[in-house]
Design goal:
Layout: H1 23-34, H2 38-46, H3 59-67, H4 79-91, H5 102-105, H6 122-130, H7 196-219, H8 224-235, H9 240-248, H10 252-258, H11 272-282, H12 286-291, H13 295-301, H14 321-332, H15 341-348, H16 352-358, H17 360-398, H18 405-411, H19 421-433
The protein binds zinc ion (ZN) (2 copies).
Length: 438
């Protein structure tokens, strides 16, 4: 009789490929198998086994953790390995350590490479559902660097199209592929335009990540310190610093900061995104720089490579200003439903910051209009509910029944509406008027 695992021996999705599942997705799917809340599973099965530094004592704290720092479980930090060990023990699996970014990036302590909340490709969700495949969140979707789906060439989404909210990392109770806040199906693609520049950059990002992953699988380590040592070596050659600066658009000082020459007390470590942007502009991959000492020297010596192709964070997608203004105008004129600046940006397929940068005044107006519209709608709804409460109280009164909270509640089209402060106030006011309350 082979040993029995405490939790299901659930296989993670797509191990060994660029599509490998993330650890937090695995936790959510595991809980989904039992049809219990992932947070309950974490609270009962994992939290009691954590070492004291990682203890998450109360369920209330777990809720905050599940919406914020839980993302670190997919990362290269110290938190992930302990959770992996516990989960491997509970499921008797030995492949869960592939579900964190350590297997892609090594132990490089880097900031800001993970997204704050999960993103997703709506087309992937739709296809998986049609093909009856498990709905999961690949590690790729958790990286800030990855902004498009390599399969479908569409932008990844990170806000629910219905409630506009960001997604929980460890879910409270949600069907896979649905919004963790309002349960809406997330597989509805928006017809956003992705520029060719962005696609080229993203294709290169995935290729470079895959290359790093293959190297890690082979050697179980990624020598990032050599990346910087080789950069320092290149900077030692006369004139190379200006050439690198010309080629990449970074200032010369930045390179000296990276290699710790500017300020000896600390070497400023560039973010993963910056390292990738630097390599992309040099037309070499991070692994090439790491592995071969003269990769960068060759870049500098090669006179033909002087075209700057750095994907600047702000101009990564060029803005079709005419199309934007036309749509903004239509919203402001009331030809379209009232949308805020971020919703307009989504419809147009641009980052909100980019839209605000080009159209600051218009965006301010959009937001004001959208807020006013939402306020009006709320007031109208409140008035409707108050009217329902009034009718309910009067109906009970006429039948000679005492208008209790419970009786009024059942007469409303949505009993939950009784919780609205205005509804409660109306109920009290009417009871006072009719002499039930002093
Ligand atoms: Zn996709
Ligand atoms: Zn939602």
């Amino acid at each position: 009789m082979p040993p029995r695992s405490r939790l299901y021996h659930l296989p993670p999705c797509d191990v060994g490929t660029v599509w490998v599942e993330s650890l937090t997705s695995y936790i959510n799917r595991l809980a989904w198998m039992y049809r219990v809340s992932s947070r309950l599973l974490v609270a009962q099965e994992i939290v009691p086994q954590l070492s004291s530094e990682q203890q998450i004592p109360s369920f209330a704290k777990l809720a905050t953790f599940s919406r914020s720092s839980a993302m670190g479980l997919n990362g290269t930090g110290d938190m992930a390995p302990e959770w992996v060990t516990i989960l491997e023990r509970l499921t008797l699996r030995s492949d869960l350590h592939w579900l964190t970014l350590r297997s892609w990036l090594g132990e490089r302590p880097s900031r800001g490479y993970l997204r704050k909340t999960p993103a997703w490709c709506p087309v992937c969700y739709t296809e998986w559902r049609e093909q009856k495949l498990p709905l999961y969140q690949p590690l790729l979707w958790m990286l800030q660097l990855v902004t498009t789906c390599p399969r479908h060439q569409v932008l990844l989404e990170d806000r629910c199209p219905h409630c506009q909210k960001y997604q929980s990392i460890i879910t409270l109770k949600t069907t896979p592929g649905h919004c963790t806040q309002c349960q809406t199906w997330l597989g509805q693609p928006l017809d956003a335009v992705v520029e060719q520049d962005t696609m080229d950059w993203q294709e290169w990002v995935i290729h470079s990540l895959e290359e790093l992953h293959r190297e890690y699988v082979k050697t179980r380590a990624l020598p990032w310190e050599r990346f910087f040592a080789h950069l320092a070596m290149c900077l030692g050659e006369w004139g190379s610093c200006s050439k690198l600066a010309n080629l990449t658009g970074f200032s010369r000082d930045v390179f000296y900061l990276w290699v710790g020459r500017k300020n000896r007390s600390y070497a400023h470590s560039p973010s993963l995104e910056t390292i990738f942007e630097f390599c992309y502009a040099c037309n070499v991959t991070p692994l090439q720089v790491m592995k071969t000492s003269d990769t960068l020297l060759q870049v500098v010596r090669d006179e033909t490579q002087l075209q700057q192709r750095r994907p600047s964070r702000f101009t990564r997608s060029r803005v079709d200003q005419e199309r934007c203004l036309e749509f903004i105008q239509a919203v402001l004129d009331g030809q379209e439903e009232p949308l805020g600046a971020s919703q307009v940006a989504r419809r147009l397929g641009y980052d909100t910051r980019l839209l605000v940068y080009h159209f600051p005044q218009e965006c301010k107006l959009l937001t004001q209009r959208a807020q006013a519209y939402r306020r009006q709608r709320r007031e109208k709804r409140e008035a409707q509910v108050c009217e329902e409460v009034r009718q309910a109280v009067m109906a009970l009164h006429e039948q000679g029944l005492f208008p209790t909270h419970g009786k009024v509640r059942t007469l409303l089209s949505d009993p939950n509406n009784i919780r609205m402060p205005k509804a409660i106030a109306t109920w009290h006011a009417l009871r006072r008027e009719l002499g039930y309350e002093s």
